[in-house]
Amino acid sequence: MALKTRKDYLDSLRKMRPNIYKFGELIQDVTTHPATKRTVESHCLSFDASNDPDLASEYTTSSVFTGNTIHRWNSMMQKPEDLVGNMMLKRQNYRRTGTCSGAVCVGWNAQNVLWAVAQEIDAKYGTEYQSRLKNWIVKSEETGITVAGALTDAKGDRSLKPSQQSNPDANLRIVTIREDGIVIRGAKFMICGTAASQEIFLLPGGIYSEEDKDYALACVVPRDIENLTIIEATHPSDLRDLEDTGSSEVPNTGITQGMLLFNDVFVPKERVFMCGEYEFTKSFIQYFTANYRACIGACVAGQGDVMIGASTLMARANGLSIKPFTDKLVNMSINNQINFGLGVGACTLGKLHPSGSFFADPLTAHTNKVLVATLPYENKRLTQEIGGGMVETGCMPSAKDLANAEYGDLLRQYYQAGSVSAESRLKAARLSEWLTIGGGVPGCMHGGGSPDGAKLTIRFATPFEEYANYARNIMGIVEEFPEPQKKK
Question: Which CATH class for the 6-282 domain?
């Protein structure tokens, strides 16, 4: 079985039904439209890497089902090395694109989590979810598809459960269960890489109880399935993206976030892996967040590597040696390695599920998530500090202004600060701007869930009484230390 190439991938996207909009316009071809072509290019680079002898070991692996060589993002993760392989791919992707490539990320995690959850549901109810999922996975390996993952619902009033919302469709739900499948309705928001995806996993957005069982669903659908409409979110760099001047005002790569609107979408039963089994949403969220929050350390580390590079270029473009900035650059590198190292630690400390899926250690993974919500922002601050005022304020001319016959030469004259040309200095500045306040910013704070949610998991995963006993035993304390009762 041959690995898919950039051309195979682009040809497949062009054959899909147009169902993505931005600024009210239906995008006919996501591979060429200025609003989507950059995220497609980010994903193209993964196909290029799979076929590159120097990168193939990071981007490909062997199928546990067939033994064939496959794209790593379609694979099962069944040992610590597989999770670390996930991290290595993500860090390399950020180094090569500067941004998220969600369609070779979230769906990959979803299939591995659902493999375990499907087995648990099958054991209790005698369903056939895991065999359905296996059929889908083997097919996805053969076709080498990109798969986004959709967890976050529109949600509505955050103080109310899904079934209590005035709009019952604020969370994606099962409307009808049929012999041949299900009909679903609702919305998923902030879904990365949808424009570059060929299929999308739809996943439980929370832990549900019986009254919310209609929201306990997991399935996978083609990105262009009938009655699904996708709206692309806007970003600060949209104007430059859509002007599409052919300059390097923005990178050739990028990410998009989609708002997915499901209006009575029919999903065939062979693509359904959870249908109302609400008691298993807890397992799903636990497994998913453990792996995702471990591996996101590689995402922020990879982008941090690029920020170090962009800062180095900016210092030199400003006519300065990087020596005065060494301490700042070293601190940035330390921040990167803290997030990456914690992620690797979580992966290697994890446990094997009876299904064969391997899950990261929750305590370490969620600790990493808390630091992912802090350390990358310090790197962004340092990137702006090293880059200077033009990076922070964005006070730079457009490519059209630089090319203007009347004053373009003057702009280039005044924007050259050292031996580096004005054009190259502006490119480095735009990259620093894009990485710190633009469309290149990954979901550090809320991507994969909020840091407050991670702290809650850390609270329950930390054995405080066990640790107290360590302290008592070291000092030979026999007396109990009861928790004081709340005074009335």
Answer: mainly beta
